[in-house]
Amino acid sequence: MLTPALILLLIGGYFLILIGISYATGKESTNAVFFQANKNAPWYLVAFGMVGASLSGVTFISVPGWVGASQLTYFQVVLGYLLGYFVVALVLLPLYYRYNITSIYEYLEQRFGPQSHFTGALFFFISRVLGAAFRLFLVALVMQQYIFDAWGVPFEVTVVFSILLIWLYTHRGGIKTIIWTDTLQTTLMIASVVLSIYYLLEGMHWSIGDFFAAPQFEQYSKMWVTDSFLARNHFIKSLIGGAFITICMTGLDQDMMQKNLTCKTQKEAQKNMIVFSFVLVFVTLLFLLLGILLFSYAQQKGIAIPLMDGSPKTDLLFPEIALFGGLGLGVAITFVLGLIAAAYSSADSALTSLTTSYCIDILKLYQKPKDQQLQTRKRVHIGMSIMLVVVVIIFKYVLDRNVIDGLLTVASYTYGPLLGLFAFGIFTPYQIKDRYVLWVALSAVGIIFVVGQLPNTLLGGYQLGYELLPINGLLTFLGLILIRRK
After folding, report:
1. What's the pLDDT tens digit per position in 222-278?
2. Quick check: helix, strand or coil at residue 397?
3. How does DSSP classify residue 434?
4. Segments of 323-363 assigned E as strands
5. Alpha-carbon distances, residue 60 vs 17, 86, 116, 261, 337 (angstroms)
6. For residue 117, is pLDDT > 70?
7. Angle ∠(312,313,318) on CA atoms, nearest 5
């Protein structure tokens, strides 16, 4: 049996490896290395590492857990992601390389003015803090449930411990370190899901053919929703919503684009994005199949959905089965290493990108005296770590839905203004009255928030889903037309 002490030992050993990588890659602890890895990162390493950063602990636990309620319909959204990655590769990456920028929100200042730059950075900041906190909350929840509760350690201490570990291996090398640690973390995560599928099949005495022929597979195999357009997860709505989620959460997100901008050339960055997109779709499908296996195994062995605060929590089904489902020590160790890799591969890059955006976009770091720049960046990095601790702890008391669904819903509100701003800059020739941009963005979010709360009875039975994101972008776009210069 995998005891809490052994789990903690695995975590400690894993982080010693990460700190070793940090030491090797962070010897030159300059801002150019921290922010851009000196623009000489191999594209194939960036592509492979981005898979882990994109999937994160949310995908590792929450996507398999969501299969119980949504079956395989999330794959519709994933196909939308694929469309979105091509837009990022063919439209946005050429733009960023042409402007030769460190933070992608610098484009907004060059195109419109300082207030637009600030607005873009502000909405990224809010989006990434919430997104990173969602991901960290999930891994802290699992660590709390299966390690620290046994020792009476409060959840708050678990969160501090988790983020302190991230800070330790990112504070020197920044994005250069992350490119290499993400490669290790992606390898472990993919190995973990493949081995978990193998162990579950073996535990149920199934072959792959038996699995696809089993009545349990049929029970959870619904992938396409095409019968009613009013449904929240209708195929067209999921496809369009998924595409816009990717355009915003990857193409308009400093976290993901910071990795791409470390490539030597635009062509290498585009190659990275396209290869990464196909690998990501395949790996996500594996996670969905893993979800069917988990629910099938739980049914066969009489394992109940774990409870949290008295309510069933499907996000905890994977750890429950991996650690206590009778599959042996091998699957338990596989799960723990995969979970750690998945969780921290996204959280570490989020911490680095938040530091980058705050330094470049808010503090205008490069306008400060050179002797102050390095110390300023280090202080901001510590400040971002403390802020993530606070937000994750707050989530414990306010979050009441599946984490992946909550993450994508929040994106509908916070990424919409970024979509509208960039679309207006790219597709129109107009200048705008820059001082009003923040008010336009806030107004669009306010309208979308109100619309998102409307009961579907007022909309003729129509259920709003992830299409709120492009609608939010459209409202911002229309608002910018109203403040364009004549």
Report:
1. 888 888 777 777 888 889 888 988 888 888 887 778 777 777 788 888 988 898 889
2. helix
3. G
4. none
5. 21, 24, 36, 27, 11
6. yes
7. 125
pTM value is: 0.77
Question: Which residues of 345-442 form beta strands (DSSP E)?
Answer: none
Rg (CA), the chain: 22
Residues 6+ apart with CB under 8 A from 112: 421, 425, 431, 432, 434, 437
Question: What distances in angstroms separate CA 295 from CA 69, 194, 310, 313, 325, one per listed residue?
Answer: 11, 17, 20, 13, 12
Q: What is the largest CA-CA distance in the chain?
A: 72
Alpha-carbon 215 to chain mean position: 33
> Could you tell me the CA-to-CA distances from 78 to 134, 221, 223, 237, 295 in Å, in that order?
19, 16, 11, 12, 21
- How distant is the alpha carbon of residue 332 from its chain centre? 24
DSSP per-residue letters across 31-79: HHHHHHGGG-B-HHHHHHHHHHHHHHHIIIIIHHHHHHHHTTTHHHHHH
Contact 273, 260 (CB under 8 A): yes
Q: At which residue do the structure tokens 């910071």 appear?
A: 258
Q: Mean pLDDT over residues 389-412, rounded?
A: 70
Distance CA 339, CA 159 (A): 15
What is the rounded distance in angstroms from the CA atom of residue 210 to the CA atom of residue 207?
5
Distance between CA atoms of residues 486 and 481, nearest Å: 10
**Least confident span in 26-40, 435-449, 453-467:** 26-40
136 has pLDDT over 80: no
**Residue 301 main-chain phi, psi, to 5 deg:** -100, 0
DSSP 253-317: -HHHHHHHTTBSSHHHHHHHHHHHHHHHHHHHHHHHHHHHHHHHHHHHHTPPPPEETTEE-GGGH
> Are the C-beta atoms of 81 and 294 separated by less than 8 Å?
no
Residue range 355-363: mean pLDDT, rounded: 82
* Residues shown for the chain: 486
- Pick the more confident residue, 184 or 432: 432
Tokens standing for 459?
A: 């909309």
Q: In this predicted model, which residue has the larger pLDDT, 332 or 213?
A: 213
Torsion of CA 377, 383, 389, 395, to 10 degrees: -100
CB 130 within 8 A of CB 414: yes
Contacts of 40 (CB under 8 A, 6+ apart): 262, 264
Mean pLDDT of the chain: 81
Going by pLDDT thresholds of 50, 70 and 90, the confidence category of residue 359 is confident
In angstroms, the CA 410 to CA 469 distance is: 9
Q: Give me 280's structure tokens.
A: 């990501």
